[in-house]
Amino acid sequence: MSRWCRWRLAWMVAFLTSVPGRVQAEEIPGQAFGAVRPLGMGGAFTAVANDESSVWTNPAGIGRSRKARTRGVLSLSKLPNLIIGANGNTREFYQAFSGAQDKSIASVLSSAGTITGKPLWARGALFPVSLFDFGRQSPVAFGLYSNTVVSALIESGSTNVASVNAVSDVGAVVTLGWNNPSNRLNAAIQFRPVSRYAYENRIPSANLVDKKAMNEYLRKDSNRADGLGVDVGFMYTVADFWFPTIGVSALNLPTGCKADYLNPYSQTRQNVCGNKFQGTFGNADALSVLDPTDVRVGLSITPRITHSANLRLALDAHNLPVGSAAQSYGLQSVPFSALVHAGVEFFVGNPLMLPEYSIRFGVNQGFITSGFSFSFGALEVDFATYGVDVSSSAKALEDRRYLASLSLGF
């Protein structure tokens, strides 16, 4: 397993050919697996969750992929659920490295100096999953996933040093839910065993163009660890009129704490609790050694425009602070713009069923998000674009990202 993960990380790093130089203050650890549909709504999905995205946002939503009176065992199944993504700087980086006259970082920078100071980000994932029922009031989800994220930055003030930030997860998801007979009240608990192979370190930028050197860094200084993510969720729909719904979820319940965890927002070391990984660490200070607890609350309503056309409005708060710096369940000092998420989804059809076509807009960290979904028979396509603040100063710096997923739905 570790050799295969190392090869995959080495291939992605070699393809990107450069990677980030310092901890980005607004990149929140523990949220690497972002589902496409929620991201198009600005991440405001805690009180919307009604498909396989529930696994990553609010596990209680696994029971809402079908009507309460629907009979049958299988509610939803998606294969292979392929997700690919990149940010807006990918093309510039590719052109810079492909257009370099020789295999040296100096040649790369001279051919396209505009890539310095701009982050690079790419992601590839698979998430085959099935949602089914053990009786009308006992929904269950089971899935397998593989998720690799590589980001990059060559800093304009220090082009001789770069750092690699690459995380590859392989794991499974088992979700056990409960709903009342009307399906207005839902609750669930979820278990996510995961093996993580990660590299987060600084290296001489000259070695970025040396595949053999990069593979050696990945072999010697990587973290190889296992963890168990535990999540819980709750949803309640107050009444039929506009379906006002409240949702609460707690992701990465504390399985351990790290006393000297570097909070990327306060830039101070704190005792932070969450899903703590155990294994062999080449860099014990890497953010990926712990996925901090993430407490979320959300509210949604679904007003009808016409008999069949609907709007779904959602407002969320993520990463709510619990505890103190001395004993923090999750991260303290997260800025307001990263706490609040809002979104809207326009769709045609029954609000209690998954729509075949929908478009979405939202706000994430103060940046506009958008997306759409459509189905051609069993073929399902989702797309989202969203902004992330990757500045390490008070002034925001948007990193525009694009995600697409392709699956066969049954």
Describe it.
The protein has 410 residues and is mostly beta strands. It is 13% helix and 48% strand. The chain contains seven helices and 21 strands. Strand 7 (223-237) and strand 8 form a beta hairpin. The protein is globular, with a radius of gyration of 21 Å. Residues 15-26 have low confidence and may be disordered.
Beta-strand fraction estimate: over 45%
Mean pLDDT across all residues, rounded?
84
Oligomeric state as shown: single chain
What percentage of residues falls in helices of 4 or more residues? 10-25%
What's the story with the biggest beta sheet? 16 strands, antiparallel
Number of helices: 7
Any chance you could write out the topology, listing elements then pairs?
Layout: H1 2-16, H2 36-40, H3 54-57, E1 74-87, H4 90-98, H5 105-111, E2 119-126, E3 129-133, E4 139-153, E5 161-179, E6 185-204, H6 211-221, E7 223-237, E8 245-251, E9 256-262, E10 269-276, E11 278-281, E12 290-292, E13 294-301, E14 309-317, E15 323-324, E16 327-329, H7 336-339, E17 340-348, E18 357-364, E19 367-376, E20 379-389, E21 398-409
Parallel strand pairs: 10-16
Antiparallel strand pairs: 1-2, 1-3, 1-21, 2-4, 3-4, 4-5, 5-6, 6-7, 7-8, 7-11, 8-13, 9-10, 10-12, 13-14, 14-17, 15-16, 17-18, 18-19, 19-20, 20-21
Helix pairs in contact: 1-6
